[in-house]
Design goal:
The complex is a heterotetramer, with one copy of chain A (751 residues), two copies of chain B (96 residues) and one copy of chain C (239 residues).
Chain A lengths: L15 H6 L4 H11 L5 H11 L1 H4 L4 H4 L9 E3 L6 E6 L2 E9 L1 H6 L1 H17 L4 E11 L8 H21 L3 E8 L8 E11 L14 E6 L9 H4 L20 H16 L3 E6 L4 H13 L2 E5 L12 H6 L5 E6 L4 H10 L4 E8 L3 E6 L2 E7 H5 L15 H5 L10 H9 L8 H4 L10 E3 L6 E4 L6 E7 L2 H6 L1 H18 L3 E10 L6 H21 L3 E7 L3 E2 L2 E2 L3 E10 L2 H4 L5 H4 L10 E5 L10 H6 L12 H16 L5 E4 L4 H13 L3 E4 L15 E5 L4 H11 L3 E7 L3 E6 L2 E6 H16 L1
Helix pairs in contact in A: 7-8, 7-10, 8-10, 10-13, 19-20, 19-24, 24-26
Chain B lengths: L14 E10 L6 H12 L5 E15 L3 H16 L5 E8 L2
Antiparallel strand pairs in B: 1-2, 1-3
Chain C lengths: L2 E5 L6 H11 L4 E5 L10 E4 L20 H10 L3 E5 L1 H9 L5 E3 L7 E9 L15 E8 L3 E3 L2 H9 L3 E6 L18 E5 L5 E4 L17 H7 L4 H10 L1
Parallel strand pairs in C: 1-2, 1-3, 3-4, 4-11
Antiparallel strand pairs in C: 5-8, 6-7, 6-9, 9-10, 10-11
Helix pairs in contact in C: 5-6
Classes of the chains: A alpha+beta (751), B alpha+beta (96), C alpha/beta (239).
Magnesium ion binds next to loops of chain A.
Chain lengths: 751, 96, 239, 96
């Protein structure tokens, strides 16, 4: 068809006002007109606005993201694919990614969170990898009292949504994190991570190639779901968002499960060339991105797209975010084989178009061309902004050091901390998630890092997600470093070598220079740490505009890192692995050793935030060399089989970490530390507690000394009390008491 | 959101019984309805054109009069029984 | 023993059972597609866990009408072994091969935890690796595991000794707090009158290997394939 | 099991729409209904005496006549939509 494209009947006139409604600046609209050599049709405007949205184009973050190291000898596919891929040995690769579903989850928590899980799973299995684990990183606002009613509803909906979706598809959720802070009152964060594995020669990419090859559409029919979702995720909230409510997508995990099985089977059949799911901006992003990767064009007949309601316009068809849909490009003439596989799994499939060598996307609808646009310039040539960045005006005020008072009664302080939803037990959440399906889970939720065996190999994968938004708010660069350092440390506690990182950058509006600065600084800090630990960033996601009426969320660059344990047999006896790799005391008589040193750091600490109600000062300094030395020591000790347990020191400091170790299995500690009561709550980094059989203590101490890591024996595992002498007193409590406070905290808070 | 009140039934002592039907909104995906349609097809019911799958609640309550009863049930629907973002509800009154 | 695992759309524990039967217990194991009508000579048929058809109406209700279920029924009626785990148990209830029904869990939430089970029968092949009164630890992961039947039917079930596993505390005693899903009489698993059809909510296949920190479930799967001499020994080892 | 047929509604060309209501049987504990009663109490609805929580299906089907439609829907209920061990169902007919 060579006719000049035109809008479909009944569609509005395209002008700069309509473009502005679509979030395009005057300049962006002008650029689009120049690119097309004419005014865009309505469908074209919709397509361009989706591709130019922050969500698809990364226009405000791209220049910063370039700071991340993305290569290593293990990286197979870095950023740019649906999920990054790394080599994990023994002929296997892992594909993983994290993505946000913040705005949809705030609007409709259950469906928003559920479809977030669905989307990230599709990103993984479109690479040909079978998903084997999920993590979820959640941030909520205040949940106390009257005001917290809506937040409690959000917590409930998000957790049920994540659970119901992952449970139904049969992917274990093996960990995550959950935080509460007032800065999320108007914008919660729901970041979902998925990991899949695949034989190294079976990896797929989302590429459309070979002129004439058919394009198949598979899965659910297209409805009016989430139209404008991509643009919505890139706009700040205002009163008008209410009006956008009908755009909520509903997830269908059953269809996802059959789509997963059918897709993997189709990819094994040998006739599939490229696969792409329809995520944000649906058919638009899948067609354009696939074509761009293959340097190709596409012709799509929108009349052939299976619809749920006949009345959809071409604009709506292209922008619909109906879930559980995929696009396959197959060898010419072989599409029937794929259709056959899909239909055996009960899925509809239809041929909606073909690959061309025109480099253009041409869309027809009811005999009319409704879009004819060059692919490459729209996908790769989307605007890139170097937004003005400047530290927030109140930075000095924020970083002003506030004197921290020592607790009169450290036990009381400990109990108060354990009783907050922030530091309380998260079992109420993760017992709604199937964490053992697929029978790989050696260590599930409730530890520093989850550990999954890799059937058929001697090795295991470890995974964790971390970030401390208070640290990031006080000093973004240090906070960025810390997030990566803590994740690497969590992996080191189980002896895993980090092999790749993904992340989700949750920030306010980048058009605010202070936020642009936070973004840049956080990324810089993360990148420094990635280089120091030699961890490549292989995928990620940016979620900006998380703010309501000018109130932005704390900068929250969620980090998820995957590590490999080469030989599980080095670490401990097979039957003990679940104990040894966990972080609780379990064997009376073991020695408890504290690694690393304290510098009395309280800025952004849980003690200061939750007990003294102050959020100020500088966060703990992250000494990357000290972290690297500690992690190397932990991995060495793991490989040598010395450790019977390990837990890093994070939020809450030393006393909280010891209490967590004791509460894990109800087995206590009798010990002493040479510090005062306040230091029990310091959050200095690069520290961990390990337990070792007494006979191994010497070797461990010697190894620590060789690596320049401070080590001191704290006491012995045993009994049912936590007894710790410090300078000027003793903490002495029955573990059962602590446990009660800790386990009741979250259920009580969520009502 | 549709809230249709047809007939109020008043039992002894101001007792009312409402029936609340909650369905996925017409434009929203109804995976359960689809799955049931398919299942019915598989077991040989060919005449089935469409299934909508929803919830049904029977609410027995005391209220001073019809108006209060009706107002209370409507509020329950909005606050708890239905999720207006994805569901529509209707209220009918039944005799005990 | 030739074992067949039925794959329904939405099954998601099929590979886990396969792994234990085939790699741990070294049995000839095959997958059976729900649309088939033959069991291909399998002596043990496993209906695995998962969310067949999304559990959209009632768990197991749609799978109960699958073509293969007629063959499963014939197999059961002829005395063949049928094991339903979790969603598979729900299917057995929905087909009537076992009595009773499931409601949503007492607190209406999905429940993923380790529970304790007391073995109530040890005269069945399934339990040949256990002794009556043994307390096992196994994971559960379900939203609809709250077993129910009429009072008379439950009495009848008890009278015939068809209750095979009950939820108990670690010390082996029944208490409400240990019966997390709220099942009538703390029922976790039952068999038919002939003892050849067994259904249970917990997942023995997820706790059948040393590496996962718990082998309490191996006895059940070993019992399921017990019959040969070597297997009897394995079954005993699993307990 | 109760199957109550009230009024048949026939659309054009033999199209019928049935409403099937499925509730837990009276003697079976209804955890969902109980939970909703509690939740309503907590958010301040004191007049509520009892809630029954069930399912509702709208079934649109083609059939030669009323009798066939009614027979088909009844069979659907028995075979799939309700589980007679724990649930009762009722069928009503609505116009399109
Ligand atoms: N939303 C969640 N989903 C699953 N697991 C969670 C979630 N939130 C917290 N957890 C689990 O609770 C434990 C404690 O979390 P956290 O304090 O963040 O760990 P750490 O400080 O070691 O990173 C971890 O094992 C984590 O996996
Ligand atoms: Mg940790």
């Amino acid at each position: 068809m060579t006719t000049t494209p035109s809008s479909a009947a009944g569609e509005p006139v395209v002008d700069s006002a309509l473009a502005a409604d679509h979030g395009l600046t005057g300049e962006e609209f002008g650029g689009l007109c120049d690119l097309l050599g004419r005014s865009p049709t309505c469908t074209e405007l919709g397509i361009a606005s989706a591709l130019y949205s922050e969500h698809c184009s990364y226009k405000s973050s791209k220049i910063h993201l370039r700071r991340f190291p993305t290569r290593s000898r293990r990286v197979v596919h870095g950023p740019g694919e649906n999920a990054g891929v790394v080599d994990i040995g023994h002929g296997w690769v892992a594909a993983f990614k994290m993505e946000s579903h913040n705005h949809p989850s705030f609007i409709e928590p259950y469906q928003g969170a559920a479809t977030g899980v669905g989307g990230i799973l599709r990103d993984v299995f479109t690479m040909g990898a079978r998903p084997i684990a999920c993590l979820d990183s959640l941030r909520f606002g205040e949940i106390d009292g009257e005001r917290g009613a809506r937040m409690r509803h959000l917590v409930d909906g998000v957790v049920r949504g994540i659970g119901d979706y992952g449970n139904c598809v049969g992917i274990p959720t093996v960990g995550g994190e959950t935080g509460f802070h007032r800065s999320y009152n108007g914008n919660i964060l729901v970041n979902a991570f998925a990991l899949g594995v695949c034989r190294e020669d079976r990896i797929f990419t989302a590429t459309a190639s070979g002129a004439g090859n058919p394009i198949l559409y598979a899965g659910s029919r297209t409805g009016r779901d989430g139209i404008h979702g991509a643009t919505m995720a890139s706009e700040a909230f205002d009163a008008e968002s209410e009006a956008k409510r009908p755009t909520v997508q509903v997830g269908d995990p059953f269809t996802e499960k059959v789509l997963l099985e059918a897709s993997l089977e189709a990819m094994r059949s040998g006739v599939v060339l490229g696969v792409q799911d329809m995520g944000a901006a649906g058919l638009t992003s899948s067609c354009f991105e696939m074509a761009a990767r293959g340097g190709a064009g596409v012709d799509i007949d929108l009349d052939l797209v299976p619809l749920r309601e006949a009345s959809l316009t071409p604009y709506e068809i292209m922008l619909s975010e109906s879930q559980e849909r995929m696009v396959f490009v197959t060898q010419r003439g072989q599409e029937e084989a794929v259709v056959e596989i899909l239909s055996r799994w009960g899925l509809e499939a239809s041929k909606i178009g073909r690959v061309t060598d025109s480099g253009r996307a041409r869309l027809t609808f009811r005999g009319r061309t409704v879009a004819d646009m060059p692919v490459e310039p729209l996908v790769d040539g989307a605007p890139v902004y170097d937004r003005p960045a400047a530290p927030p005006a109140d930075l000095r005020e924020r970083q002003r050091v506030v004197d921290c008072e020592a607790p009169e009664d450290p036990l009381r302080a400990l109990r108060s901390l354990l009783g907050t939803p922030e530091l309380g037990d998260k079992t109420w959440i993760h017992r709604q998630y199937d964490s053992t399906v697929r029978s790989n889970t050696i260590v599930g939720p409730g530890s520093d890092a989850a550990v999954l065996r890799l059937k058929g190999t001697p090795s295991a994968l470890a995974l964790t997600s971390d970030v401390n938004p208070s640290y990031c708010w006080l000093e973004p660069r240090m906070g960025g470093r810390q997030a990566v350092a803590e994740a690497v440390r969590n992996l080191a506690t189980v002896g895993a070598e980090p092999v790749g990182m993904t992340n989700c950058l949750n920030f306010g509006s980048p058009e605010n220079p202070a936020i642009a600065w936070q973004l840049r600084e956080c990324i810089e800090g993360m990148a420094e740490a990635c280089r120091a630990f030699d961890v490549p960033v292989i995928s990620g996601n940016v979620s900006l505009y998380n703010e309501t009426e000018g109130e932005a969320v704390h900068p929250t660059p969620t980090v998820a890192i995957v590590g490999v344990i080469d030989r599980l047999e080095d670490i401990g006896a097979e039957g003990d692995l679940h104990l040894v790799l966990g972080c609780g005391f379990w064997r009376p008589g073991d020695r408890v050793v504290l690694l690393g040193c304290d510098s009395g750091e309280y800025g952004g600490s849980a003690y200061q935030r939750l007990l003294q109600r102050v959020e100020a000062g500088r966060p703990p300094a992250v000494d990357l060399e000290a972290e690297a030395a500690l992690c190397a020591l932990l991995r060495q000790s793991r490989r040598a089989g010395w450790l019977s347990g390990c837990h890093d020191l994070a939020d809450g400091g030393l006393l909280l970490a010891l209490a967590e170790c004791a509460m894990a299995r109800g087995i206590g500690l009798r010990g002493a530390v040479g510090c005062g009561p306040l230091a029990l709550f310091s959050e200095s980094q690069a520290r961990a507690i390990v337990t070792v059989p007494a006979a191994r203590t010497e070797e461990l101490l010697a190894a620590a000394e060789a690596r320049g890591v401070a080590a001191r024996e704290v006491g012995d595992v045993g009994g049912d009390r936590l007894v710790l002498d410090f300078e000027g007193g003793t903490v002495d409590s029955a573990i059962g008491d602590l446990r009660r406070v800790w386990t009741e905290a979250l259920p009580r808070a969520v009502g | 959101m549709t809230s249709q009140t047809s007939r109020h039934a008043e039992g002894p002592e101001g007792r009312f019984v409402a029936r609340v039907l909650v369905y996925p909104r017409a434009e929203v995906l109804d995976p359960q309805g689809r799955a049931i349609e398919d299942a019915l097809g598989r077991i040989g019911f060919d005449g089935v054109r469409r299934i909508r799958a929803g919830k049904s609640f029977e609410v027995a309550l005391e209220a001073a009069d019809e108006e209060q009863a009706s107002e209370a049930v409507d509020r329950m629907c909005r606050q708890l029984l239905a999720n207006p973002i994805v569901e529509d509800y209707t209220v009918e009154w039944v005799s005990e | 023993m030739k074992c067949g695992i039925v794959v329904f759309p939405g099954s998601n524990c099929d590979h886990d059972v396969y792994h234990v039967l085939s790699h741990v217990l070294e049995q000839e194991t095959t997958f059976l597609w729900h649309q088939e009508t033959s069991l291909e000579g399998c002596e043990l048929v496993v209906l695995p866990g998962g969310f067949s058809y999304g559990d959209y109406l009632r768990a197991g209700s749609m799978a109960a009408h699958s073509p293969i279920m007629a063959a499963v029924r014939r197999h059961a009626e002829a005395g063949g072994r049928v094991l339903g785990i979790c969603n598979g148990f729900q299917m057995l209830l929905e087909t009537g091969l076992l009595p009773g029904a499931m409601r949503r869990n007492r607190d209406l939430r999905f429940l993923s935890v380790d529970v304790h089970l007391r073995v109530e029968r040890d005269d069945l092949a399934w339990c040949s690796g256990y002794r009556r009164g043994d307390v096992l630890r196994m994971p559960v992961a379900h939203a609809e595991g709250n077993y129910v039947d009429t009072g008379e039917a439950l009495d009848e079930l008890e009278r015939r000794g068809q209750v095979v596993f009950r939820y108990v505390n670690g010390a082996g005693r029944r208490e409400p707090a240990a019966n997390l899903n709220g099942s009538e009489r703390a029922i976790a698993g039952i068999c038919n009158a002939g003892g050849n059809v067994l259904g249970l909510m917990p997942h023995p296949e997820r706790c059948a290997e040393e590496m996962l920190g718990n082998r309490d479930g191996l006895g059940l799967l070993a019992g399921a394939v017990a019959g040969g001499g070597r297997l009897g020994a394995l079954a005993a080892a699993g307990g």
